[in-house]
Every structure is written in structure tokens, then in C-alpha cells.
Amino acid sequence: xxxxxxxxxxxxxxxxxxxxxxxxxxxxxxxxxxxxxxxxxxxxxxxxxxxxxxxxxxxxxxxxxxxxxxxxxxxxxxxxxxxxxxxxxxxxxxxxxxxxxxxxxxxxxxxxxxxxxxxxxxxxxxxxxxxxxxxxxxxxxxxxxxxxxxxxxxxxxxxxxxxxxxxxxxxxxxxxxxxxxxxxxxxxxxxxxxxxxxxxxxxxxxxxxxxxxxxxxxxxxxxxxxxxxxxxxxxxxxxxxxxxxxxxxxxxxxxxxxxxxxxxxxxxxxxxxxxxxxxxxxxxxxxxxxxxxxxxxxxxxxxxxxxxxxxxxxxxxxxxxxxxxxxxxxxxxxxxxxxxxxxxxxxxxxxxxxxxxxxxxxxxxxxxxxxxxxxxxxxxxxxxxxxxxxxxxxxxxxxxxxxxxxxxxxxxxxxxxxxxxxxxxxxxxxxxxxxxxxxxxxxxxxxxxxxxxxxxxxxxxxxxxxxxxxxxxxxxxxxxxxxxxxxxxxxxxxxxxxxxxxxxxxxxxxxxxxxxxxxxxxxxxxxxxxxxxxxxxxxxxxxxxxxxxxxxxxxxxxxxx
Length: 561
Ligand code: ADP
Ligand code: MG
Known about the structure:
The chain is α+β, with helices and mostly antiparallel strands. It is built from 13 helices and 32 strands.
């Protein structure tokens, strides 16, 4: 502590660069402060610090297995964020002076670099804007931040007594239950489970928090109700969605997309109080949508779309500008390539001509290369074991291919399968277009040399917010990777891509992604870090989003075989 004080005394009022002398570690009594990286000026991204307690006196039950540890780390990250909000004054001079922050978690519980809990210590990775007056060191303000505010944040969030231990226990137990529940899905023959009482709607289109006012809690239809036994909570009932083809039908504004959206996010665990904490979907579920304008590199979409104008083959399809239907087909082929057992499709965000083609249009248009999705859903399940949940409001033909129909009315689901059978009898069946072919996907080979990380003299591979990755001079747009939930995942993906490009030659997309995730599993997310000590702000992405990002690189060259 005295060393820290004397350095601060010495550099007071000197040029901002003098803060570099702070780099190092300091014993501050209850914890050790590591100053890993000092910012260049008050307007640059804040300095990276870690605070590590001298011991871990939390009950080991809170972090005694890998699932609980991740959940407890998530809890503590939120506790630090809350403590910072209460304790830190912020704004102590120019630029980011006096700002203190920790990675901001989404509603999902994910492995992150923000917190490390071991049997011996608890370590929070934070960022601090070292205070300046103009462009000179403000030692007094720095003392207040580092020696008053930070220790208070530690007392309120990283040691027993500072946190609400009952809430911590509920947090880890809920996450453990959700994990267990997701694990049960295959043996129950289900692709998803929505607990009775779950709150699915969100506050707004811009907020992932639960809708508070007038939210109708989820109630399973009797016919689909499943009761399970969870390790902490005990018995739980809710709607089980079986494998196969499930239709979610209903009038406009009755909660169809809200249900599908909740399912697509429930590949992740959510915090207690989110409303979706006991909603689970197969962890490899992929939301599929149209995304016209995206680039596609060497994807085999011939099972869905035949030869294009000019006899152009679609078995090795590349374009800088896909149409609605070809982009949706590419999204499906890429999901199958990485591996999925469940596709989630919403009519609202699909290309109409990809979903369906009626008989009059078939009569008029003879040169149509597209086999509509309606003819694919059954073969996808029969041949590849891939289930589909599809939201439709307008296209009754889908009744012909559904194993079951969930009807949403006033946000309440009912099992409309028997009525769907009656309706089907009343109308002549739709003639399928013939045998749709689905083949197991091939692993494309990626040429790493097609990605150029150079930008001026430097090489860059970094995340920018939730939906952009900067690779050299290219900005990769991930807006339509809807299952990407926090910027930390985007950052991790950027670094995985950077590591892949640094390697040589051509490799299969699946092996690139699997190897990267296996090495994270083995060495932790920290291993993607670029500075000694503080790794930066990262969260664990899924294989599907890593591949999804690679697939959207415009310069990417890839091909089958
Ligand atoms: P659809 O896809 O059937 O047209 P949406 O899922 O988009 O309908 O839902 C329409 C509106 O209803 C949205 O604003 C949504 O937030 C709200 N909503 C959905 N489910 C519920 C619910 N259970 N309780 C209250 N509001 C809901
Ligand atoms: Mg909708």
C-alpha cells in the first residue's frame, strides 16, 4: 500500500504517461491489486486491473462443481457491477477519469473472463479510468479510486457478508436445475421444455429483460404437460415439445414469435427472475432466418435449391449478395454442417418463396429451382434426425407436414393437433413437389489466407459491440446471428478467428470451430487473452455462432471437397 502511495505521490501532476509506473501488483490488505495495463491517455480505453482476495471464505457449495462455479462467477460479476454503481463516484476529471467497470452480463449465465473463483481466492477483472486533470496525473483522485472505492467494492461484492448468500444459493441452484433439465431433453424425446409460470415476453424490442406489466405467465396445455424432477427444486411441470415437426400457429399478435424467441435464447441458462430460467431448448438449436445481402462461401445448398440461371450449380454456392431464399438455404446448410438437432423458423423472418409455393404459382412459373422448406421438414427429421419448430400464421399447407400443432391464443397455448387433422380432411391435400433430398452436410474447407487481418501496420481481430467483428479492414456484420447474446462472445469469436488466420493452410470449418472450443474448454477463456494477467472482456460463444461469424466474412474462400 505504501509503495502504491509513494508512486502516486511521485507522479502527481506529471504527464499522463507517468501512470505507466503503476504497472505491477500491490498488497492492499484484504486483497491484491494487479495493474496489468495502463491506458495511454485519459481518453483511451480504461486501464485493466484485477483485484484478488487473499482467501475464499464462501461456502464451497456455491462453486463446488463446474456448473455451479460458472453460475457463482456470474453472480459475483453482477454483484461487483451493483457495488460499483453504489460506491464509485466516477467522473473525476477529463475523459474516462474515475470510471470503474466490469464486464456487463446479459440475462444469460455464461462462462466469462470477468470473474475467477478458486478454492483459494476470488478475482475480479475490471477496468479503471485513471484520473487526470487535463492530461496530467491526478494522484489524489487516483488514491480515492484505488484505495477507497475499490476496497469498498470488494467488501460489498467479493467476500461473505458483502453479498446476499441466499440469493447466491438460489442463483447457482437455478442454473444447476436448468442444466439438468436441458440434459433430460433427449431421453424424454423432447426438443424443448417451457415451465409453467415462465414469463416469455420481454420489456421491449430493445431490452432482454422480462415484461413486468400484464405479462401472462406460461401455462402448458394438458396434452403436452410433462413433469420432471430437478435436483434442487424438485418437481416441475411444463410444456414438453416432442421431437419431429411442430407448428406454432395463431393469429397475429398472439405470442407466437415471443414463444419461438424464448426457445431460441434458451440454449443458454438465464438468471433467476428472468422469466426463462426454467425454459430450456436443445443446446444445439439454431434459429434460421432469411438474410438477403449476406455473403456465402462455397456452401452446398443443392438439396434445397437446384441449378440457378445459366446452369450455375448450387453444390458449391458462393455469392457476395445472397437473395432471401438462398441466404435462408445457406443458413440451414451451415447449421447442419456444424451439427444441430433443432431448427427454429419464424414465418415473420423467412423468405416466402423459401417457405412455400402454391399450385397456381407452380403452374405459372416452371423454372423454379427452390424446393420449399415445407417439403424439407419431414425428410430433415426422417433422414437426419433434425426436428423443426416453425411459426406460421398464414400458410395452412404446413398443417400437412406437422406432427403437432400448438395454437397460441391470447398468449395461451393449446394443443390443436386433433383440430388440425379435421381441418386437413376438409381440404384437398397439397401435392408435394416430389422427393426432396436431404444429405448429410459436407465439411467445407476454409482457406485461412483469404482473410487478411492487416490494417495499416497492425493486425486486428476484435469485437465491436454485439454485432460487429473487425478483421483488418473488413467489418463482419453479425446482426442476424440472433443467438449471439453479449459482446463478450463477439470478442471471443474475433480472437478465435484471429488465431485461425494466424495458422496456415486450409481446414474444415467444423474442425476449426471444434478445436478452438475444445482448447477453451481445456485452458479456459483466459487463453484467448492478449495481455499478461487481464485477458479482456470475453464470454463463451457456441460453435454455431463461431462458425456463423466465419461464414459471414466477405473475403472468405471455402469449398466443399
Ligand atoms: P405474434 O408473433 O403471434 O404476432 P408476438 O409474439 O410478436 O406475436 O407478440 C405480440 C406482442 O405481445 C408483443 O409485444 C409481445 O411482447 C406481447 N406478448 C407476447 N407474449 C405475451 C405474454 N405471455 N404476456 C403479455 N404479453 C405478451
Ligand atoms: Mg410474429
